[in-house]
Design brief:
It comes from Novosphingobium clariflavum. InterPro entries: TraW (IPR014114). This is Type-F conjugative transfer system protein TraW. It is a single chain. By secondary structure, the protein is an alpha+beta fold. It has a domain at 89-102 and 131-211. It is 26% helix and 28% strand. The chain has helices at residues 47-60, 63-80, 144-153, 168-175, 186-191; strands at residues 2-7, 10-15, 24-25, 28-29, 89-90, 95-99, 103-104, 109-110, 116-118, 123-124, 135-140, 159-165, 180-181, 195-196, 198-203, 206-211. The protein has a six-stranded mixed sheet, with helices on one face. β1 (2-7) and β2 form a beta hairpin. The longest helix has 18 residues, at 63-80.
């Protein structure tokens, strides 16, 4: 049966179907309409196969070897020219202080025969057992004045000259002397050094740390 209802000057047709012959499921009409159109299975490329094909292509055209060569050059460049230690500046006013290198052991220390040398929790000063025979001299390796100053004051036997910036390799070829580098600023951070030139020297069972103003630096 169809009823027509007037709405806003027009007609709205509402089909009301009532037939006990049609099955009703859950209060709704159910009817099998069959397959509506063609269906396909879900097809996705295998990720590992894709990566494998890509790598084989890159290997065949030489891309991998070029990448490896570029990485080697970059690594060598970083070794030869390490990043400067952050936060280290030139000395403008000298200062000096002492540093106690003592540590607290987190476990027992025994000799080769198993005899207790020091026990966990004990405070130990390394300078009580091992003498520090050379000074540590920290400089900016990019500054010719600092390099020449350090080399004139300390022989290779009396000190280790440690760069906080600049290439120790380039300077070794130039000066014919071995230089070192404070990797990631671990030594300067440990000693509280903020300016260079700086010297760490043994003084009994403590270390004397001095940030030294270069001649003419304040001019």
């Amino acid at each position: 049966m169809i009823r027509r209802v007037a709405l806003a000057g027009g007609f709205l047709a509402i089909a009301l179907v009532a037939s006990s012959a049609w099955p009703v499921v859950g209060g709704a009409l159910a009817h099998d309409h069959g397959v509506m159109g063609q269906t396909w299975g879900i097809v996705e490329p295998d990720l590992l196969d894709t990566i494998d094909r890509r790598l084989k292509t890159m290997q065949a055209d030489g891309s991998i070897e070029r990448m490896n060569a570029a990485l080697r050059v970059k690594a060598q460049e970083r070794v030869r020219n390490p990043l400067p230690v952050a936060g280290i500046g030139a000395v403008r006013e000298g200062r000096s202080w002492t540093f106690d290198p003592s540590i607290v052991l987190d476990q027992d220390v025994r000799d080769q025969k198993g005899r207790l040398v020091a026990q966990a929790g004990q405070r130990v000063n390394p300078l009580s057992f091992v003498a520090m025979k050379t000074d540590l001299v920290f400089i900016d390796g990019r500054d010719d004045a600092q390099v020449d100053w350090a080399m004139k004051r300390w022989s290779a036997q009396n000190a280790k000259i440690i760069f906080v910036a600049g290439s120790p390799f380039d300077r070794m070829g130039e000066k014919k002397r071995r230089f070192f580098f404070d990797q990631q600023g671990k030594l300067t951070s440990h000693f509280g050094i903020a300016h260079v030139p700086a010297v760490v020297a043994p003084q009994g069972e403590v270390l004397r740390i001095s940030e030294i103003e270069m001649p003419g630096a304040g001019a």
